[in-house]
C-alpha cells in the first residue's frame, strides 16, 4: 500500500482554513442545530408549521448575513436575485 504524505495536501496542513472559514463553519453548525430544534418543536406540536417556516427563514437570513460579513457580498446575476431567500 503506498504511503501518503501530508506535505502536498492542503486539507492536512496547519493553515488549511482561514479564521473566517472556521467561523463560517461554526455558524453553519449552529444553523443546523437551530433548524433541528425548530423541527423538533414543530413535530412536537409546540409551534405551528407557519411559525417553524418563519423561524427557519429568519435563521437562514442570519446565516447569509454572517457569510456576507465574513466574505463580502456576492456579485453577479445570482446576487441580484432574491431566489436564495426562498426556502
Structural class: mainly alpha
> Mean pLDDT, rounded to whole units?
83
- List how many beta strands DSSP finds: 0
Q: Gap between N and C termini, in Å? A: 46 Å
Rg from C-alpha positions? 18 Å
What composes the largest sheet? Answer: none
Which band does the percent of strand residues land in?
Answer: under 5%
Shape label: elongated
How many individual helices?
Answer: 3
Q: Would you list the SSEs in sequence order as H and E?
A: HHH
Helix content: 55-70%
Question: Which spans have pLDDT < 50 for at least 5 consecutive residues?
Answer: none
Can you characterise this structure?
The protein is mainly alpha-helical. Helix content is 60%, strand content 0%. The chain contains three helices and no strands. The protein is elongated and about 45 Å long. The model has no long low-confidence stretch (mean pLDDT 83).
Features:
elongated, mainly alpha, 87 residues, 0% strand, 60% helix, DUF7219, single chain
In short:
It contains three helices and no strands. The chain is mainly alpha-helical and 87 residues long.
Amino acid at each position: 500500500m503506498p504511503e501518503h504524505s501530508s506535505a502536498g495536501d492542503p486539507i492536512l496542513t496547519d493553515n488549511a482554513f482561514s479564521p473566517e472559514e472556521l467561523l463560517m463553519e461554526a455558524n453553519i453548525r449552529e444553523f443546523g442545530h437551530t433548524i433541528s430544534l425548530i423541527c423538533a418543536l414543530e413535530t412536537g406540536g409546540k409551534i405551528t408549521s407557519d411559525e417553524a417556516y418563519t423561524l427557519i427563514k429568519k435563521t437562514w437570513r442570519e446565516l447569509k448575513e454572517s457569510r456576507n460579513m465574513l466574505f463580502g457580498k456576492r456579485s453577479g446575476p445570482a446576487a441580484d436575485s432574491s431566489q436564495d431567500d426562498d426556502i
